[in-house]
């Protein structure tokens, strides 16, 4: 029996983001989820965006992190 790997685990998600060349659009396709949901997952786990993703989605991502941090406390 193969060990179960949770794709939403912080370490797995961050490693897959690296494998996707730190491209949130590509990662969302791999995970077969909406781009907004992928940004939410990255924000929930405090995974920093690449410079390119930061330029495209930084404002939205930062608002998600603030919201996550506020509700997580």
Explain what the structure shows.
The chain has 73 residues and is an all-alpha fold. It is built from four helices and no strands. The radius of gyration is 12 Å and the shape is globular. The mean pLDDT is 93.
Number of helices: 4
Shape estimate: globular
> What's the total number of strands?
0
The SSE string, one letter per element, is: HHHH
Short key terms for the protein model shown above:
mainly alpha; single chain; 73 residues; 4 helices
How are the SSEs ordered, and which strands pair?
Elements: H1 10-19, H2 24-30, H3 35-44, H4 51-72
The gist of it:
With 73 residues, this protein is mainly α. The chain contains four helices and no strands.
